[in-house]
């Protein structure tokens, strides 16, 4: 059974609604028992951490919309609490809510490094770039204590395996000592996600992620270390943030970003209701306008999951955004980052003797 959330917004948390996950057999709702039990705010939810018993660490995909076929996520759930996160519905697979559970009930993979060594050492393994931290941020706050991401990065660097990272955390700067040499060998690139430059809006949308100004500083630090950086305007939210597109690109370029991309807001599964609730509470005067424009880009629906359409949308408004991006991209001198080198990969020693 999954209960509905308190109606109060918690400081430092993004979700304003915690719907029952789509696999739950039962759902509950709040009821006032006559003792004003719904009036006072409940205790702030604490972050909990549990071990994940996954037997493999590399996840493969065949999506034509992304530029990689494999990824590693050291953690499940993300304490950044971004209300728009497309990964929130994955918490339903754990029997949890995509709402507050996603940002407070976190899971880590204690055997990630050992599993990665085994998988890279397999005779059947064929090298191709690995994307690190795609579903949830590999540099979210709990990485400071657990250090799983650094262990994984160390193995990838030692084996000269090409990889990339997408993050909105300044913690990536901690690992520049490992990342810069890999980048010099054309085996690493970074992407920093920037949704808005408005610190107030960022605090409400992505409460525990680095501030916009801090992310620009991270782009500078990575670029100064010789690491190719892509800025991702992701997600781009019609009406709420799309007016900032050119400004974000310009400031990121000035900070040293070499390449750029954008992703239109995606609202799969439970996220549709969650984002609408957040808009009603945090941007009530724009809520209807945001959703109407988003539906213009999604064939009249809140979300269109089709390959080829889900990332950038369709329709006149989506085409306008695409044209604006292309013009700014060319004007600011962005250019694609060269492909990562796969030829130098050296499998780790798996400790087994070879017959031949």
Strand and helix map with partners:
Elements: E1 48-51, E2 58-60, E3 70-72, E4 75-76, H1 100-104, E5 105-108, H2 112-121, E6 130-132, H3 143-146, H4 148-158, E7 163-167, H5 176-184, E8 188-193, H6 199-205, H7 212-224, E9 229-236, H8 245-255, E10 259-264, H9 271-282, H10 287-296, H11 316-331
Helix pairs in contact: 2-4, 8-11
CATH architect. name of the domain at 48-264: Alpha-Beta Barrel
* Tally of contiguous helical segments: 11
Measured between the Cα atoms of the first and last residue, the distance is: 56 Å
CATH topology of the domain at 48-264: TIM Barrel
How does this model look, in words?
- This protein is α/β, with parallel strands linked by helices.
- It contains eleven helices and ten strands.
- Helix 2 (112-121) runs parallel beside helix 4 (148-158) and helix 8 runs parallel beside helix 11.
- The model is unreliable at 1-6 (pLDDT under 50).
- Helix content is 30%, strand content 12%.
- It has helices spanning 100-104, 112-121, 143-146, 148-158, 176-184, 199-205, 212-224, 245-255, 271-282, 287-296, 316-331; strands at residues 48-51, 58-60, 70-72, 75-76, 105-108, 130-132, 163-167, 188-193, 229-236, 259-264.
- The longest helix is centred in the C-terminal third of the chain and has 16 residues, at 316-331.
- The termini are far apart.
- The strands form two sheets. The chain has a seven-stranded mixed beta sheet, covered by helices on one side.
- The protein has a domain at 48-264: Alpha-Beta Barrel (TIM Barrel).
């Amino acid at each position: 059974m999954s209960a509905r959330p308190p109606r109060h917004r918690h400081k430092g948390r993004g979700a304003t609604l915690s719907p029952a996950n789509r696999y739950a057999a039962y759902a509950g709702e709040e009821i006032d028992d006559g003792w004003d039990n719904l009036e006072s705010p409940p205790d702030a939810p604490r972050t909990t951490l549990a071990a994940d018993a996954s037997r493999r660490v590399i996840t493969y995909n065949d999506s034509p919309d992304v530029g990689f076929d494999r990824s590693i996520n050291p953690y499940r759930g993300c304490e950044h609490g971004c209300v728009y996160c497309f990964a929130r519905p994955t918490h339903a697979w754990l029997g949890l809510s995509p709402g507050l559970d996603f940002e407070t009930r976190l899971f880590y993979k204690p055997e990630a490094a050992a599993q990665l060594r085994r998988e890279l050492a397999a005779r059947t393994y064929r090298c191709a770039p690995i994307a690190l931290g795609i579903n949830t941020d590999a540099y979210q706050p709990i990485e400071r204590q657990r250090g799983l991401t650094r262990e994984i990065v160390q193995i990838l660097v030692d084996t000269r395996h090409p990889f990339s990272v997408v993050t909105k955390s300044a913690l990536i700067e901690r690992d520049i000592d490992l990342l810069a040499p890999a980048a010099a060998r054309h085996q690493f690139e970074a992407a920093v996600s920037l949704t808005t430059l408005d610190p107030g809006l960022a605090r409400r949308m992505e409460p525990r992620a680095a501030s916009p100004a801090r992310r620009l500083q991270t782009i500078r630090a990575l670029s100064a270390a010789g690491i190719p950086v892509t800025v991702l305007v992701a997600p781009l939210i019609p009406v709420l943030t799309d007016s900032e597109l050119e400004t974000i690109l310009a400031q990121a370029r000035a900070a040293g970003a070499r390449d750029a991309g954008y992703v239109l807001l995606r609202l799969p599964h439970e996220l549709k209701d969650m984002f609408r609730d957040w808009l009603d509470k945090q941007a009530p005067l724009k809520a209807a306008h945001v959703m109407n424009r988003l539906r213009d880009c999604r064939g009249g629906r809140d979300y269109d999951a089709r390959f080829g359409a889900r990332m950038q949308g369709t329709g006149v408004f989506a085409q306008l955004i695409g044209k604006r991006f292309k013009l700014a991209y060319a004007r600011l001198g962005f250019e694609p980052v060269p492909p990562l080198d796969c030829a130098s990969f050296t499998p780790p020693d798996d400790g087994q003797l070879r017959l031949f």
